[in-house]
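User: Predict the structure for this protein chain, please.
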Amino acid sequence: MQRVVDLDFESWVCPVPLRDTPTVVMGHGGGGVMSGELIEHLFLPAYGAAAAAELGDSAVLSIGGTRLAFSTDSFVVKPMFFPGGSIGDLAVNGTVNDLAMSGATPLFLSTAFILQEGTELSALGRIAEAMGTAAQVAGVRLVTGDTKVVDSASGDGVYINTAGIGVIADGVDIDPRRARPGDAVLISGDIGVHGVAVMSCREGLEFGTTVESDTAPLHGLVADMIATGADLHVLRDPTRGGVAASLNEIARASAVGIDLVERDLPVPQTVRDACSLLGLDPLQVANEGKLLAIVPPESADQVLEALQAHPLGRSARRIGTCVPDHPGMVVARTGLGGTRVIGLPIGEQLPRIC
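Assistant: Here is the predicted structure, written as structure tokens:
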């Protein structure tokens, strides 16, 4: 007998359009408030006891005394090719990075394609080659996969799902609930680059300069951080929803406040200009090759040095501190001595960027 889930839309706290229009909208995929509401009020009640107790970018599983990280992600970026990358390398790097944020060494990936009828095989070939190259660079194997084709009215080129498995070494305990007051908040480099790179090649948008995506595998950078011996509390790659979404989720999971220093945020001028033109907040723009690290204050300099010694972390810096005040909230200290709240994005600022 099929189980019917009774959804009480009136009890939802998500803003319009969810209550008034109970259909899927683009904001549900944005990694912000609307995504969280969809998970909390639709998927979890529907899954019931089958749902995992903990939700994260990757699940940590113990099998025969070995801890494994398992993650899955889907990629629908438009356009499929953009400055600095493509949907192919993005699909590999995205799942590799989700595993790395648990402290895992990525080992195996699956690849599943949904192809629109009429897609040029030459484009699909470029995407597949990009995936193979990215997998070799990351040191992972593409071990299984699937392909489906939908009619020309039902898709939009190529969609890719990748799932990955990695191994977590003994002694590594990285969890979004481990942030503590006094911890330092570090970032590995410039923010907002990927989102602006994708937007820069969409019709009608020209920023006067080429911004290239930062898509890259981050597990080597994480390995160098772990090698310092520091007790890494939290790692997160700020993809959908950007730095704002990731830090808000960490603050809520750990029940701490996070204070950022606005002048220390590494926003390139090209990203700042593009966001100003589009009316966007750089902190809410996606990244695909950056990580946030929350570490004990006594380890901050050591971890920062390790970050800066790696090619992917040369521009790393400290951007803030975890505090006991305003738990669950992220604020930025402005240059004028005031503060502004960095909220969790409602929906999707830049649709189809990952």
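The mean pLDDT is 89.
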